Amino acid sequence: MGESEVIEPLSEKPDAGKPVFQDVPKWYHRWFRTPKELRELGVVGINMRNARFLLPNNPRRLYDLVDNKLRTKALAEAEGMTVAETYGVLRTPHDANIVEKILKGKEAFVIKPTRGSGGKGIMVIDKKVGKNYIKPSGTEVTPGDLKNHVSNILAGLFSLGGKRDYALIEYRVQPATLLTDMSFQGAPDIRVVMLHGYPVMAMLRASTKESDGRSNLHQGAVGVGIDIATGMSVRAIHHGKPITYHPDLGISLIGVQMPDWETILEMAVTCQEMTGLGYLGVDIMIDENKGPLMIEVNARPGLAIQMANGIGLLKRLEPIVIEHKRNPGADRAAKIAYSKKHFRAKLPAPRGEG
């Protein structure tokens, strides 16, 4: 597949609740490919990611800067980036017992482990009705459920390595209206994968009813590939299969222009600079009033972004390795300009046109 090739979205809308699948290359649906075929497609697997890009570029001493969300937020704020407001940090069993007191006056919020990964342990609350809290899916959470969830976070149930953790309570992002239309109640986020400070690939992760307001693809969220050069959505997948429309909302996911794209790229490159990591993923949300917010940085970004974009990561990582050796002192503007020039996708018609 040529890097500029894009699969055109289908023009027919789906029946309610039924995703429409795109006509895609057969490699997406085959369980087994030979090493030669994978190399030709430029697909990066976990072993290659770790051996060629992660381990050589991410010193172990730097991991805690991103594995600990509190440290990451502090770094981002020092760089002048906007982050989600912290309502509280729960550190002890006593804190779990008084979580409602800490949340007094806050009806919408997010509770997450400070050392969690893969979306595990994140609880999103949209509102409070009576004594109970309501999740994006409509599920009620009792005060006892809330306390138990915090206790599980503190015990390390969701943390990397199963070590004891803290529970972070944050502002519940109010996503930009354009993105709300693409997500089932939850707040979508944008992930940008970076190598040596160059934006390599990007996708929007939008929640579904199945994912319960969370944007993790393994929990049933939708992945939407984004053109690095323009910020326009070019492809979409659900459970690894390409789709054109959101499975719950029936709205087209293709040809949507992401707001504040230049700011998003700037934030992603800044995250690389502030952490010192060579290979990383940066997660950003776009708030209706606050604009782009840096949510977290991941030192071990997953590989499903290749499926969302229909392009093997190797086709973009290898040129960056060469460019970085050729021009090791490139500044932020030069890196963004390089990525825009060399990783531009063939764009579909904007949503609502054609």
UniProtKB/TrEMBL annotation:
Pfam families assigned to the protein according to its UniProt record, in alphabetical order: ATPgrasp_ST
Keyword Cell inner membrane: no
Domain of life: Bacteria
Residues forming coiled coils: none
Classification via InterPro entries: ATP-grasp, RimK-rel_E_lig, RimK-rel_E_lig_ATP-grasp
Keyword ATP-binding (UniProt): yes
The name this protein goes by in its record: Alpha-L-glutamate ligase-like protein
Top-level taxonomy: Bacteria, Pseudomonadati, Verrucomicrobiota, Verrucomicrobiia, Verrucomicrobiales
